[in-house]
Amino acid sequence: MELNIKNFKKKNIYTPVQIISLGFAIVILIGAILLCLPIASQSGKITPFIDCIFTSTSAVCVTGLVTLDTGTYWTYFGKTVIMLLIETGGLGFMSLATLVFFFLGKRITLKERMVMQEAMNVNSLQGLVKMVKYVLIFTFSVEGVGAVLFATQFIPQFGVAKGIYYSVFHSVSAFCNAGFDLMGNFNSVIAYANNTVVILTISALIAIGGLGFYVWVEIYNCKGTKRLSLHSRVVIYSTIILIVGGAILMFIFEMNNPYTMQGMSVKGKILSSIFASVSPRTAGFNSIPLNKMTPAGNFLTIILMFIGGSPGSTAGGIKRLPQLCFL
Questions:
Q1: 24, 81, 93, 267: most buried, per Cβ within 10 A?
Q2: Which residues face 41 on adjacent strands?
Q3: Per-residue model confidence as pLDDT tens digits over 1-52
């Protein structure tokens, strides 16, 4: 295997890191071109390229920042393009390329395996394809369950077709920690602050996506008396501590703020506190106005954003808390 890898490096100009970078750049450019099309905007006009490239980059990099309101500006074509860009960015384009290889029955070469290794942030090529299969199945299964839960709330409100579409979109966006929403007017999910199903489903999807694929693959393969690795245990424990601790602090900081939680019921305050603890770790959703939070609440949000998710996850941030815990 070592000889094959050396030969691979001699024959190929681009390194796996360069291929991944180039691949993401191409995906972003294609997304921007598609969003520029008149069919992508509600006005039927060509959208300025700067807005399209910004939106495409934000979607692929699961940042959640937008210059145009996702819910009101784009048509279903444009929204679907954004959703696919989010999925590509969250999973990584090599994971989706592997899915295409599976469907086409194409053999995955050493070159693709090395790029996948770099994209998945693993140390060995052994069992890599099997791991990617787990990741794909797990991702679509979790997003499917999330969509079903959302559908119980969105279908009665928006109707069957629109409700199902909204359910799938928000499930993908939440799991990939993207923060894009279709509620309109840049209000995110503020209107659902008291909706237990919507708030907890988004929170669960964000947390699951933020744990990292390696952790979930290890949990899936953990049987009998076999223990999880130190990495996985630290990731799980640190995630629980951050969510619970962040929710308690956010409740204390915002419970008497007349612009955020003061007028809410106890249930609404608890839900919003949990959501405000989970979402800042790069998910981008909000159920209370961020610009009206207390200085303490804003500072806590900054800390949570800085920490982010876990290594190899769909989240952002420094994603190095587990490693720091080892020191």
A1: 81
A2: 74
A3: 444 545 544 555 666 566 667 778 888 999 999 999 999 999 999 999 999 9
Block residue for tokens 């399209």 = 52
Q: Which residue has the tokens 């295997």?
A: 1
CB 240: neighbour CB atoms within 10 A? 11
Q: pTM above the 0.70 mark?
A: yes
- Helix 266-278, helix 230-254: angle, nearest 10: 140
Helix then strand then coil, in percent of the chain rounded to 5, is 70, 0, 30
User: Would you put residue 294 in left (φ > 0), alpha (ψ -120 to 50) or beta?
Assistant: beta
The residue type found at 35 is L
Cα–Cα distances (Å) from 50 to 55, 66, 175, in that order, read 9, 11, 27
8 Å CB contact between 192 and 287: yes
Cα–Cα distance between 112 and 257 in angstroms, integer? 53
pLDDT in tens, 255-273: 999 999 998 999 999 999 9
Nearest-angstrom CA–CA distance, 153 and 159: 10
User: 265 by DSSP, 3-state: which?
Assistant: coil
Q: How many helices (H) and strands (E) does the chain have?
A: 15, 0
Say which residues have a Cβ less than 8 Å from residue 253's Cβ, sequence separation at least 6: 293, 294, 296, 297, 300
List of long-range contacts for 33-40, beta carbons under 8 Å, 24+ apart: 34/81, 35/74, 35/78, 35/81, 35/82, 37/77, 39/75, 39/77, 39/78, 40/74, 40/75, 40/77, 40/78, 40/81
Amino acid at 139: T
Two tokens, residue 139 = 């991702």
Measured CA to CA, the distance from residue 141 to residue 137 in angstroms comes to 6
Output the furthest CA–CA distance in the chain (Å, rounded): 67
